[in-house]
Write a structure and sequence with these properties.
The chain is an alpha+beta fold. Helix content is 58%, strand content 26%. The N and C termini lie far apart (96 Å).
């Protein structure tokens, strides 16, 4: 059967049959397209849409964790800075030689004379230890007041002065000189040092 015969038969076929045949062929091509291409693409699109939603949810969780982490790091850094400041006031080592040098510097600045100093045994408490030093100094009342003021103002450590006894007032060329006996204590941190 030649192509011309097929064409001739097609031309003689009623129009209604041609339309039905054309619709059937179009439906067949549409069905093949749908099942072969479109349904796969639709499934992939749906799968990708679901994946996008999952990734967006993960991104939101990640950004939330990132924000909480940054806030946590800022809090940790703030606490570490506070710890450094606190360790200046309550150091974790006794460092008595530096403490005594500071006392001598304050005594010289106030104009008092240090007669004796005697370090006493350390007294441990729950998280700190008290390091007492018994001292005897001489100077005018004003000089003694300046010395105690300088000790409180200029030392970066916690200092406690107790058992103060002013005795032996003596008249000299500079005025009345007093003898001050007292216990000056500093403190150190004895707990586990934080990281």
């Amino acid at each position: 059967m030649a192509l011309s015969d097929v064409m001739e038969r097609f031309v003689r076929t009623p129009t209604r049959v041609k339309v039905i045949a054309l619709l059937a062929i179009s439906a067949f091509i549409g069905a093949v397209f749908y099942f072969v291409f479109y349904s796969d693409l639709a499934d992939k699109a749906k799968s990708l849409s679901t994946r996008v939603k999952q990734l967006e949810a993960e991104k939101t969780k990640y950004l939330d964790r990132k924000q909480r982490y940054r806030a946590f790091r800022a809090e940790v850094n703030k606490l570490l800075d506070e710890q450094k400041e606190l360790l200046k006031v309550l150091p974790d080592d006794a460092n008595i030689s530096t403490f005594l040098q500071s006392i001598h510097a304050q005594a010289a600045a106030a104009g008092v004379n240090i007669l004796t100093y005697d370090q006493r045994p350390e007294v441990r408490q729950s998280f700190y230890a008290q390091i007492p030093v018994r001292m005897t100094i001489t100077g005018s009342f004003h000089q003694l007041s300046k010395f105690f003021y300088y000790m409180e103002k200029d030392l970066k450590r916690i200092v406690k002065i107790e058992d103060l006894l002013l005795t032996s007032p003596a008249q000299t060329e500079q005025g009345v000189v007093l003898r001050a006996q007292f216990v000056i204590s500093t403190f150190r941190f004895v707990g586990k040092r934080p990281v």
